[in-house]
Amino acid sequence: MMLLPLLLLSACQADKATPALGGDPENGRLLLRQFGCGTCHEIPKVATARGKVGPPLGGIAHRVYIAGVLPNTPENMASFIRHPEKHAPRTAMPDLGVTETHARDMVAYLYTLR
Amino acid sequence: MKLLATLAVLAVVAGAAGATFVWSGAYDISATDQHLPPTYWLMEKTMRRSVARRGNDIVVPPLGAPKQVERGLALYRAHCVQCHGAPGVAPEPFSLGMTPLPAPLVQTGREWPAGDIFWVVKYGIKMTGMPAWEFRMSEEDIWSVVALVQRLPYFSPDDYRRTAVPGLDAYEARASSDWEVSIRRGRIALQQYACVACHRIPGITGHEARVGPPLAGIASRTMLGGVLSNSPDNMVRWIREPQQASPLTAMPDLGVTERDARDMAAYLSTLR
After folding, report:
1. Strand ranges, E, within B109-152
2. Does residue B55 sit in the same domain as residue B152?
3. Structure pTM?
């Protein structure tokens, strides 16, 4: 019990140091631009990402739901990026053919947006 | 000059003491920690004076017709007895743990003018558990509650127990048919339907909500909930029946009336 706060503390620190899903945040940032995510979403520090079709992604790491339908975990976010219509059948967000590796990098970047 | 300097020093010291008090967390916020008697007196007085000033101008219709009291009784059983109790009936356990405690309305009914009771039922009281019923009951129904509250002290516990419970659809009559869309009313409705519990909305004070997306700039966004194109009609549709538009959405149906949804949409359309 005494160790619990220490464990939590180290978990928090690990959270900050280790990127989500072990992806590469910097590459994720570039990929978000390459896949045109910014056409529909505002994304901090992604050049030209000023779209107003979907919700802004600033602070997305802390949002409780993804697209209003999925609990926000790194795994769910990666899965939603790859196959949005599987999770939200009527969503306007298209399947852009993102690979698993690419999705992991994107999630790593999006999880830095606190 | 000397006086000014002294006052300035005192102001700085008082400010620092206040800041230390807040940041240290010394204040016990628990509902079991009683207020000091002077604090309680001051808050009670502030509330009472505020209500009296506003209730004073309200024109009171004739009260006490049997039908009206009966309607008031049905509403009271549906929405009030849980916290306030009734002759011979205890409030629900949860309400006993509230600070401030909900008032015993058999006393209020004897002591308060009708206009004051009406005002409190309609607008609620900040920083207490008393909600505003403005968006949940018609004015006519609120007057029925006032009529009942004024009669309640004269029910014996046995009278109260034996009163028939008429069937009630409390929400049936709250929306009147003629109204004009109001941006100002929409802003209040967004707060009164607890939209700010999940969304941050410019112009409405609330916590740092992160359940759904922030609504700043919603007027210039193209889609609603990812599924509907953003038009005034679709905004009303989305607000009233989100799960019809997006079956899996976490956004609940809050029972928003057509009028209230139109007003909310009008306010949201100003957020560019």
Report:
1. none
2. yes
3. 0.79
